[in-house]
């Protein structure tokens, strides 16, 4: 039995396969994420951080290699099973919040729960609990346009955790914020991950933030190496 919540084994990704100007972004990347571990993924822009996260979260497929959640190999599963696993096991946070503008903060956190079959009363309660936890409970009825960038990103964190995933994947989650707000929002994210016992892989170019995580790895010429 594997102790890793997420395992990436020999991940390869080539763009323009079979054509001229092939670009091998990932060349056999290996990574194991332990239960409750927060790992920073650092690399220059364009090195393949987002590609790796999308493959890890089943949003994209690798050209070679395996993705496993615990002891379950996800590679090769059909679309329906991948969708269910992605919805229940993985939470995503991006540089931009991608909240639905026509819905309130509470409704944005409720929606993924409804998609997973949770009844509205329980979904509302869970959403309010998460928003309270990150300090913006009083803003639950506001739409994204009426919230600051830091508040919007906190809502995005809550949405990512709404279905109780085992794995959080974050792609430059504070990269769109000013330094002071970035530090505050990152502290919120770390506290939320610690409190929920999640395993997290967080891509960042901010080495100061990376140093506050449990471990740092680098994406170097298509391979994962120690930071």
TrEMBL record:
Name of one Pfam family that matches: ABC_tran
A GO BP annotation: protein localization to outer membrane
Entry GO terms, CC: plasma membrane
This protein's UniProt keywords: ATP-binding, Nucleotide-binding, Transport
Cross-referenced Gene3D superfamilies: P-loop containing nucleotide triphosphate hydrolases
Location of the ABC transporter domain: 6-225
Keyword Transport tagged: yes
InterPro entries listed in its UniProt record: AAA+_ATPase (IPR003593), ABC_transporter-like_ATP-bd (IPR003439), ABC_transporter-like_CS (IPR017871), ABC_transpr_LolD-like (IPR015854), MacB-like_ATP-bd (IPR017911), P-loop_NTPase (IPR027417)
Superkingdom of the source species: Bacteria
A GO term for molecular function: ATP hydrolysis activity
Membership in a protein family: Belongs to the ABC transporter superfamily.
PANTHER family in alphabetical order: IMPORT ATP-BINDING PROTEIN, LIPOPROTEIN-RELEASING SYSTEM ATP-BINDING PROTEIN LOLD
Entry protein name: ABC transporter
């Amino acid at each position: 039995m594997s102790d890793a919540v997420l395992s990436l084994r020999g991940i390869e990704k080539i763009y323009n396969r079979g054509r001229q100007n092939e670009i091998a972004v990932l060349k056999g990347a290996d990574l194991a994420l332990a239960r409750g571990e927060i790992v920073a993924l650092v690399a220059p822009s364009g090195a393949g951080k987002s590609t790796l996260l999308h493959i890890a979260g089943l949003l994209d497929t690798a050209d070679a290699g395996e993705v496993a959640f615990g002891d379950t190999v996800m590679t090769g599963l059909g679309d329906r099973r991948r969708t269910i696993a992605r919805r229940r096991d993985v939470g995503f946070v991006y540089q931009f919040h991608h909240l639905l503008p026509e819905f309130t903060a509470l409704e944005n956190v409720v929606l993924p729960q409804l998609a997973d079959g949770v009844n509205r009363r329980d979904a509302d309660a869970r959403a309010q609990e998460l928003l309270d936890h990150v300090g913006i409970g009083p803003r639950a009825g506001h739409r994204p346009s009426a919230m600051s960038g830091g508040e919007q990103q906190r809502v995005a964190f809550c949405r990512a955790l709404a279905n109780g995933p085992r794995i959080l994947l974050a792609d430059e989650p504070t990269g769109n914020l000013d330094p002071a707000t970035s530090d505050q929002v990152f502290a919120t994210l770390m506290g939320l991950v610690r409190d929920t016992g999640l395993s997290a892989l967080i891509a960042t170019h901010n080495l100061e933030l990376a140093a506050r995580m449990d471990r740092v790895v680098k994406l170097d010429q298509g391979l994962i190496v120690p930071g």
